[in-house]
Amino acid sequence: GIPFDGETGPNNAITDVNGTLVGHTTLITGEGSLVVSQGPVRTGITAVLPRGHHNDPVFAGWYSLNGCGEMTGTAWVEESGFLQGPVMITNTHSVGIVHDAVIGWIRHQPTFDPHDPRTFWSLPVVAETYDGGLNDINGFHVTRDHALDAMRGAQSGPVEEGAVGGGTGMVCNGFKGGIGTASRRFEAGNRQYVLGVLVQCNYNWDGDDLRLGG
Questions:
Q1: Judging by DSSP bridges, how do beta strands 171-172 and 82-83 pair with one another?
Q2: What are the backbone angles phi and psi of residue 158, rounded to the nearest 5°?
Q3: Mean pLDDT of the chain
Q4: CA 138 to CA 133: how far, in whole Å?
Q5: Segment 63-109, tens digit of pLDDT
Q6: Are 135 and 28 in contact (CB under 8 A)?
Q7: What is the rounded distance in angstroms from the CA atom of residue 149 to the CA atom of residue 102?
């Protein structure tokens, strides 16, 4: 019932942009007080594949509004203006292992050629938000296989939202945070376009600044 403007795509999701796929790996185990390396585990990985499984770069840019979130691969995005491969989102202490997994995944794609300068190297984009308030973040429960599962399972159509994938352990504006997505159709220069977004929200623990529809 919130009066957002505009007309959505059929899924009201980033996957309404043709060719874009999204996959999640969600890790939820254990209850009770924190025991490092045992749990509770509330974390995961979200994969966004702008061109699906095709080796076809998209124009890209990045901008830091505020905060200290780490995102790998931004130097090459800024230098080249391109994004090649998936965008991965996970927890703060799992950026490294997800980064390694993406390089391994790309190496096994049909388009990989160790002699082609366009494909024989990779600087993946992996972003993080902190889930240590709900997750045993120092237990290192995210593995390479979890990252591979998120990429292999990426699909079009409706996108699961909320406490899933990289958003599993998030808190936002005093509520449970997580993954959100939306889309809008619009016209520019007599052409029809679709704008899609995906957010992993994790900020403002008390909710004092939350505004919806004014």
A1: unpaired
A2: -60, 145
A3: 92
A4: 11
A5: 988 777 899 999 999 999 999 899 999 999 999 999 999 999 988 88
A6: no
A7: 11
Q: What count of residues does the chain have?
A: 214
DSSP string for the chain:
-----SB--TTSSGGGSTT-EEEEEEEEE--SS-BTTTB-EEEEEEEEETTTTS---EE------SS---BTTHHHHHHHSEE-S-EEEEEGGGHHHHHHHHHHHHHTSTT--TT-TTTS----EEEEE--TTTS-GGG----HHHHHHHHHT-BSS----BS-GGGTT-EETTEE-EEEEEEEEEEETTEEEEEEEEEEE-B-SS-TT--S--
Of the candidates 211, 200, 208, 203, the one whose C-alpha atom is nearest the C-alpha of residue 71 is 200
pLDDT surpasses 80 at 177:
yes
pLDDT of 88 reads 98
CA-CA distance, 153 to 147, in Å (whole number)? 10
Instruction: Output the CA angle 30-32-33, nearest 5 degrees.
Output: 115
